[in-house]
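Issue 218. Parser rejects a valid record. Input:
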Amino acid sequence: MKNKAGVPITEEITWQDITPGGIVYEAGSAAHFKTGDWRSMKPVFLKDKCTNCLLCVPCCPDSAIPVKNGERLDFDMDHCKGCRICYKACPFKAIEFIKE
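Output the parser choked on:
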C-alpha cells in the first residue's frame, strides 16, 4: 500500500487506533504554561504615570497584569506575550513597549 506521494506505507493503523482530536482529557489553565517567551516586544510599566484605573487589566488576554488589594502591579513576564492590547487601553500612557 502507498500514500498519495507514492511512498510505501509500512504500518497498518486503523481509525480505531488513533486518539480522537479535539477532546480535552484533563483540566488545564494558561497559568500552568509559561508562554511569555513567545513575545518580541516587552512591556514596561510606568508606575509614576499610572492612575490605577485598571482599564488595562480586563483587556489582557493572558491575565499578565496582576492586581493585589485593588492596586495594579508590574507585568507577569511569564505570561505576557507582548500583544500590546493593554498599551492601547491605557489612556494615561503608563505602558510602553521595547524590543525584547
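Fixed in the parser; the record now loads. The longest helix spans residues 85-89.
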